[in-house]
Amino acid sequence: MPAFLLDREVQLKMLKELQKKRTELKGISEEAKEKRNTLNAEASKLATKRNELNKKTKELINEAQKLKESRDEINSKVHEQKAQRDSINAKANELFAKADSLRKQNNIGGPSIKSLRKDIDRLEFTQQTEVLSTSKERELVGKITQLQKQYQVKKTQLEDNVELKNILEEAQKIRDEASEYHNKLSEFAKQAQEFHENMIATFKEADRTRADSDIAHKEFVKAQEAADEQHKAFINAQKEIREIDKEIFKLRKKDKDVRGHPAKAELQKDAKNIFEKFKGGGKLTTEDLMALQRSGLV
After folding, report:
1. pTM of the shown model
2. Which pLDDT tens digit goes with each residue over 28-72?
3. Of 204, 197, 206, the residue nearest 56 (C-alpha)
4. Alpha-carbon span 291 to 271, nearest angstrom
5. CA 232 → CA 29, 83, 218, 221, distances in Å?
6. Burial classification of residue 2, based on how many CB atoms lie within 10 Å of its CB (0-12 exposed, 13-18 middle, 19 or more buried)
7. Are the C-beta atoms of residues 178 and 92 closer than 8 Å to each other?
8. Which has the least CB within 10 A, 6, 108, 247, 278?
9. How far from chain centre, in Å, is Cα 179?
10. Separation CA 284–CA 207 (nearest Å)
């Protein structure tokens, strides 16, 4: 078999192997491209989820900070009311201490007239609203009678002692004023506690959304890195395909040249015969001259 035919057989075998390799690389390239696109879409969703959670976390923290500011503002009012109450109570306590001193001086002891009045009202309410046995009602009536006597005695003592009466009235008036501040204080304290509890709950919710955001970010990074690996695999496969295409192009060109070789060899053989004919003194025809031109010898 001529050498050029052997060369062509080797070239065709190489071409077949390259085409097979190209097909395999094309499959790898398409698979890597599909995986890359899927992973990029997943990473995009995770990034969106993470960003939304970060936004929510920021909003919750801002809300919690506002609640904290409101709580602190109310607590300031609590402190103000407490200071006012304590200051007024101090004045009332001074007057009650002075009243106690007058009682001792005048041998006036026992419960206050206001305390006696409350006890009488409480027992009379029980008598009017509850069903009692005869013995219980008799006992209750006895207590009411006893308290009424103490009340009258105390009332007489106070009416006789104008100074003590005036001090106690002034002290009670001041104590009532202090009670108003205490009531306001209690209301503000309740509001502050509500703000505090809401603030704590909001901060906890912010912590939860931040944790969810961290998880989403880790998953995003993982998906993005996997997508990058698939992209590298796609690029490498594409690069190899281009290299193989170059080699295929070269082999096909070479094969074309080889396939044209027999015809050229035949032309050159005919040309040599014509040339020998000419050297021998033979006359060249127009066809002979054209054959010499096609062979490249002239």
Report:
1. 0.57
2. 999 999 999 999 999 999 999 999 999 999 999 999 999 999 999
3. 206
4. 6
5. 10, 73, 21, 16
6. exposed
7. yes
8. 6
9. 47
10. 104
The single residue listed with the structure tokens 């190899």 is 240
Closest CA to 39 of 246, 234, 267, 247: 234
On whether the CB atoms of residues 82 and 188 are closer than 8 A, the answer is: no
**Cα–Cα dist 210/55, whole Å:** 10
Distance CA 263, CA 295 (A): 10
Q: For 48-62, b where at least 16 C-beta lie within 10 A, e where not — what string? A: ebbeebbebbeebbe
CA dihedral 60, 63, 68, 69 (to 10 degrees): 150
Sheet strands (E) in the chain: none
CA distance linking residue 284 with residue 298, whole number of Å: 13
Please enumerate in sequence order all residues whose Cβ is within 8 A of that of 161, keeping only pairs 6 or more positions apart, or say none. 102, 106, 108
Joined together, the tokens standing for residue 2 give: 């001529």
| Burial class (CB within 10 angstroms; exposed 0-12, middle 13-18, buried 19+) of 176 | exposed
Of 295, 214, 247, 265, which Cα lies nearest the Cα of 17?
Answer: 247
